Amino acid sequence: MTLFEKIIARQIPAEILHEDEHCIAFRDISPQAPVHLLVVPKKPIPRIGVAALDDQALLGHLLLTVGEIARKENLSEAGFRVVINHGPHGGETVPHLHIHLLGGRPLEWPPG
Ligand code: 5GP
């Protein structure tokens, strides 16, 4: 069971902001911005680069959910960033697909 499956199963506590049939969103334990959320599919796809055609609707749902949460968190006007880390060079540390939603301050580009 991945760490995020344990959060979904309520075996590990998290500040959950959204849950539906397909995904869950909760606050990152180590926030890198005033708002830092993770949107996670309930299906434990390890990382974006191994998602399959079968996951097309799910991936669309995750992005639409990110947009919905960003609006609820009042990030739309000032802006926000959406990040998916894949593998060691991408900075992935949890092998269960997750989308970072970061906002609440200006974010630099390019990333480090
Ligand atoms: P990654 O580095 O794989 O893209 O992102 C994993 C994220 O999960 C990190 O930002 C990290 O802070 C977060 N994280 C790791 N363990 C926990 C946890 O137990 N609870 C929560 N809410 N976030 C976690």
Multimeric status of the protein: single chain
The largest β sheet comes out as: 5 strands, antiparallel
The H-and-E topology, N to C, reads as HEEEHEHE
Mean pLDDT: 98
> Strand order of the main beta sheet, please?
1-2-3-5-4
CATH superfamily: HIT-like
Which range does the strand content fall in? 15-25%
The CATH class is Alpha Beta
**From the 3D coordinates, which CATH architecture would you assign?**
2-Layer Sandwich
Proportion of helical residues: 10-25%
The chain-level structural class is alpha+beta
- What is the strand tally? 5
How many domains comprise the coordinates? 1
* N/C terminus separation: 31 Å
The general outline is globular
User: Are there runs of 5+ residues with pLDDT below 50, and where?
Assistant: none
Per CATH, what is the topology? HIT family, subunit A
Count the helices. How many?
3
**Rg over C-alpha atoms, rounded to the nearest angstrom:** 14 Å
Can you give a write-up of this model?
There is one protein chain. By secondary structure, the protein is an alpha+beta fold. The chain has a single domain (3-103), classed as 2-Layer Sandwich (HIT family, subunit A), CATH 3.30.428.10. It is built from three helices and five strands; from the N terminus they run αβββαβαβ. It has helices at 3-8, 56-72, 87-90, and strands at residues 16-19, 23-27, 35-41, 80-83, 99-103. A five-stranded antiparallel β-sheet has the order 1-2-3-5-4, with helices on one face. It is globular and about 35 Å long. It starts with a helix and ends in a 9-residue tail after the last strand. The structure holds guanosine-5'-monophosphate (5GP).
